[in-house]
Structures are given as structure tokens and as C-alpha cells.
């Protein structure tokens, strides 16, 4: 296990943007925290009202956005203009190259969202955008799949043998996760509440990487404990 306490993450304060980095990103660099397998970026972002990221490029990366609060407007070079909200999952396959922008749609409330980058298993694919809305009630005391490698499966899909799940657990609820693919690792990110895995107790925004296990069991310590479970290949 690799335990990343929330307070040990990198932090950038740009005024309009406050961002915590689980892995090395931009001006934050830690040689011990470059990635977890193909999971390259896990940013916990807070964007002030009416502010956002201007148009910028990406290539050869699978980019997943999970809104937690507020409304985030997206525009890209593929012609998409959309708004993502809590309950939505957004994915972009940057492939051979795209540009996009992201802005807080509202002038009175901030936006909070998770920005996740996964290194793909194919390079220079045709850029692609997708966005879906899921029912948060479907993750009450269970894990709801939000991402997989399979077109037509539950959630969005990416160019990688990865599976993401969200769960919202009642106090004392136990949930066992079993690997989908042999050799993968699991990175658990606790959005809120508290969670025990083995002898480790996770608090809000803590992360735990698990390798060499076929399955593991989580026990919620608080009501409305919200967790993101990311299964990813460990070889780049």
C-alpha cells in the first residue's frame, strides 16, 4: 500500500484557482509521486465564480472530469460546448491533439471538480469527447461504475484497461472490490467521510494505492462517506 494523506499533496494558489495535486503537476514536483501506474494526474480543483482555464492544448492523454459542486462550462476544438454538473462524468481522449477551455458557468458560486489524467494504451487516436449523467442514488451503499475500457458498458469509456467506480456509503457499510484485470492496481481517493481499509484509516481527500491484491474490503466510518475507486494498469 502507498498512503497519501491529504495534507501531503502539492498545492497551487492562483487566486481564481486553488488546486491540490496528488501527483507531480506543473510547479509541484516530487520524484516519489509522479504517478500510480497509468494514473498520471489527480487534481482537486476549486475555481472561483466566473473564472476558469483559457484555451490550452492536450495530446495523447485520457482526461476525466468529475464535478463535485457547481457548473463547469467546456468548449473545445471539436465543436463541443457543454456544461457539466455534479452527477455528470466527462471524458476527453486527446489523441493526436485538441484544444479546450473550462470556465465556471456561475457568477456567484465556485466550482469544485476532480481532474484526472490517465496515460492511454494507444497513441495519436482521433480526438473524442463524451459526457454522461448518472443517478447518484445508484451508488448508495454500492459501487457505481463510471468508467471502463468497454464501449457500451456502464459509464464512459477510455483507451486503457481501467475501471472507475464511485460509492456513497452509510456508517458501518462494508464493500469489497475485486480486480477486473490481473496485474492492475487500485487507487482509492476519499472524497468525504472516513474509510478503513485493512489497518489504514482514510480521512477526507486521503489517497491509498493498493497493488498485489485480488480484492480488498472498505468499511465506512461516517454516514455519506464518498469514495472514488480507480483500477488502473501498473505498467506504462
How does this structure look, described?
With 236 residues, the chain is mainly beta. It folds into two domains: 125 residues, Jelly Rolls, CATH 2.60.120.10; 96 residues, Jelly Rolls. It is 0% helix and 53% strand. The strands form four sheets. It has a seven-stranded mixed β-sheet with strand order 1-20-17-22-15-13-14, with no helix packed on it. A seven-stranded antiparallel β-sheet has the order 2-3-4-11-6-9-12, with no helix packed on it. A four-stranded antiparallel β-sheet has the order 5-10-7-8, with no helix packed on it. A hairpin with a 4-residue loop joins strand 7 and strand 8. The protein starts with a strand and ends with a strand. The model has no long low-confidence stretch (mean pLDDT 97).
Would you kindly provide a brief summary of this structure?
By secondary structure, the protein is mostly beta strands. The protein has strands at residues 2-4, 10-13, 17-21, 39-47, 52-58, 62-69, 71-76, 81-85, 88-93, 98-104, 111-118, 128-133, 143-148, 156-157, 163-169, 174-178, 185-192, 195-197, 200-202, 207-210, 215-220, 225-232.
Q: Approximately how much beta-strand content do the residues carry?
A: over 45%
Q: Report how far the terminal alpha carbons are from each other.
A: 19 Å
Number of domains: 2
Main-sheet strand order equals 1-20-17-22-15-13-14
Shape: globular
Mean pLDDT: 97
- The chain-level structural class is mainly beta
CATH architecture of the largest domain: Sandwich
CATH domain class of the largest domain: Mainly Beta
- Give the CATH topology of the largest domain: Jelly Rolls
The largest pleated sheet is described as: 7 strands, mixed
Helical amount among residues, as a percent range?
A: under 10%
Sequence of secondary-structure elements: EEEEEEEEEEEEEEEEEEEEEE
So, the CATH homologous superfamily of the largest domain? Jelly Rolls
Q: Any low-confidence stretches, pLDDT <50, length ≥5?
A: none
For the secondary structure, the number of strands is 22
Radius of gyration: 17 Å
| Tally of individual helices | 0
Amino acid at each position: 500500500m502507498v498512503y497519501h494523506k491529504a495534507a501531503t499533496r502539492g498545492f497551487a494558489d492562483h487566486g481564481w484557482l486553488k488546486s491540490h495535486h496528488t501527483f507531480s503537476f506543473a510547479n509541484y514536483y516530487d520524484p516519489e509521486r509522479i504517478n500510480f501506474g497509468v494514473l498520471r494526474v489527480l487534481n482537486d480543483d476549486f475555481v472561483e465564480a466566473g473564472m476558469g482555464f483559457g484555451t490550452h492544448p492536450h495530446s495523447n492523454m485520457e482526461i476525466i472530469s468529475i464535478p463535485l459542486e457547481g457548473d463547469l462550462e467546456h468548449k473545445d476544438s471539436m465543436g463541443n460546448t457543454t456544461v457539466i454538473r455534479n452527477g455528470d462524468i466527462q471524458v476527453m481522449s486527446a489523441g493526436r491533439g485538441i484544444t479546450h477551455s473550462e470556465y465556471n458557468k456561475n457568477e456567484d458560486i465556485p466550482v469544485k471538480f476532480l481532474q484526472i489524467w490517465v496515460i492511454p494504451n494507444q497513441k495519436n487516436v482521433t480526438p473524442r469527447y463524451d459526457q454522461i449523467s448518472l443517478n447518484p442514488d445508484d451508488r448508495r451503499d454500492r459501487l457505481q461504475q463510471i468508467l471502463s475500457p468497454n464501449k457500451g458498458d456502464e459509464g464512459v469509456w477510455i483507451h486503457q484497461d481501467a475501471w472507475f467506480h464511485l460509492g456513497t456509503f452509510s456508517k458501518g457499510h462494508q464493500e469489497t472490490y475485486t480486480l477486473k484485470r490481473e496485474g492492475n492496481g487500485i487507487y482509492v481517493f476519499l472524497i468525504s467521510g472516513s474509510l478503513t481499509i485493512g489497518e489504514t484509516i482514510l480521512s477526507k481527500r486521503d489517497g491509498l494505492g493498493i497493488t498485489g491484491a485480488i480484492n480488498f474490503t472498505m468499511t465506512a466510518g461516517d454516514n455519506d462517506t464518498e469514495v472514488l475507486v480507480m483500477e488502473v494498469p501498473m505498467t506504462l
